[in-house]
Design a protein that fits this description.
243 residues, Threonyl-tRNA Synthetase, Chain A, domain 2, 2 domains, 17% helix, aminoacyl-tRNA deacylase activity, Misacylated tRNA(Ala) deacylase
């Protein structure tokens, strides 16, 4: 049974009740979850699964499931090391409470939304990205010089502009008819499921994205360009950090 990815519609959910559907060598599978699995450049969520008796199974990471027929929403919750005895006690059919590490996730949300602002500040194709708790890294396919001060000033303007951030959906056919929406060279939007999720930053940016984001750019807060370097002859790397 496919996992219902609750974070797709509400990234601010910090917990949910769920039923274990399987426990295997990779981790724990649930019928629904608030845990975001590693993908699209964004790190997977950490947190805990709380059993009926109050026991906490610490989750160190969340990954996309790889079984035959798995969808992009199917997730496996990876336990932290040293919990083998706990895993032996649980089985499919049990109810748990899934709780994410909200502090960690919220930093991901702020930095991921900031990476979309970067796509508006620097209108080049993105040839790689990584969203972690500490930074957002983007590689832009360009030979043009990038001025750190100009980037920081424009980012501050967009953050302070309090632009609304929301998701919307289009069909696979509509996505195929609008290839200009795709800004990333290394990560393509998932097709074949009937619809594609878009992230719209009002008046700023619109592109396919399955990640988690804040509701308003003002929530991002102050940013600084921690690193700006020439990664290759045709690529410039920029690393953003929260101040």
């Amino acid at each position: 049974m496919a996992t219902r990815a609750l974070f797709r519609e509400d990234a601010y959910l910090t917990g949910c009740d769920a039923t274990i559907t399987a426990v295997d060598e990779l981790g724990i599978h649930l019928d629904q979850t608030v845990f975001y699995p590693l993908g699209g450049g964004q790190a997977g969520d950490a947190g805990a699964l709380v059993l009926a008796d109050g026991t906490r199974v610490e989750i160190a990471d969340t990954r996309k499931a790889k079984f035959e027929g798995a969808t992009p929403d199917d997730a496996v919750h990876v336990p932290a090391p040293g919990q083998h005895a706990l895993l032996a006690r649980i089985a499919a059919g049990e109810r748990v409470r899934a709780e994410i590490d909200w502090t960690r996730r919220y930093r991901h949300m702020r930095l991921h939304t900031a990476s979309h602002l970067m796509c508006a500040v620097l209108p080049y194709a993105v040839d790689g990205c990584s969203i972690t708790t500490e930074y957002a890294r983007l590689d832009f396919a360009t030979v043009e010089p990038i001025e750190r001060e100009q980037v920081e000033a424009r980012l501050a303007e967009l953050v302070g502009g309090a632009h609304g951030v929301a998701t919307e959906w289009i069909t696979d056919d509509e996505m195929a008819a609008r290839p200009e929406l795709v800004r990333t060279m290394s990560v393509k939007p998932p097709m074949g499921l009937g619809r594609v999720r878009l992230l719209r930053i009002e008046g700023v940016d619109l592109q396919p994205c399955g990640g988690t984001h804040v509701r308003n750019t003002q929530e991002i807060g102050a940013l600084r360009v921690a690193k700006l370097e020439k990664k290759s002859a045709r690529t410039r790397r920029l690393v953003l950090e929260l101040v």
